[in-house]
Design a protein that fits this description.
mainly beta; N-terminal domain of TfIIb; SH3 type barrels; 2 domains; 9 strands; Alkylphosphonate utilization operon protein PhnA; YjdM_C
Length: about 120
């Protein structure tokens, strides 16, 4: 048994213990698997736009600066609205998956968009 058990996701009690492969809260009797606790920690990553607003799947964002697109003669202009974004763990620091009218599907960095 490790010294630092995770807190209970139901009541936030620090009095938890391991029993038959599950974690159990001694205060509210909530049971959960340790894998679920690790998944929750991974999901806690918050993606913010250029001005600090929290982004979520399905949001509409606006591009804040012109972006050159490889293979396309015209850039994505500042002020272009992008609807129905999806947050992903993309290539490098590209964390938004979206479709832009006239350009198609692509990934963007959250640092170049602002929540609309």
């Amino acid at each position: 048994m490790s010294d630092a058990q995770p807190v209970c996701p139901a009541c936030a009690s620090e009095y938890t213990y391991e029993l038959n492969g599950l974690l159990v809260c001694s205060m509210c009797a909530h049971e959960w698997s340790p894998a679920t606790a690790e998944d929750d920690a991974e999901e806690a990553v918050v993606i913010r736009d250029a001005v600090g607003n929290v982004l979520a799947d399905g949001d509409t964002v606006t591009v804040v600066k012109s972006l050159k697109v490889k293979g396309n003669p015209s850039p994505i202009k500042a002020g272009t609205k992008v609807r129905n974004i999806r947050l992903v763990d993309g290539v490098g620091d590209h964390d938004i998956d979206c479709k832009i009218d006239g350009f198609g599907a692509m990934q963007l960095k959250s640092s170049v968009v602002k929540k609309a």
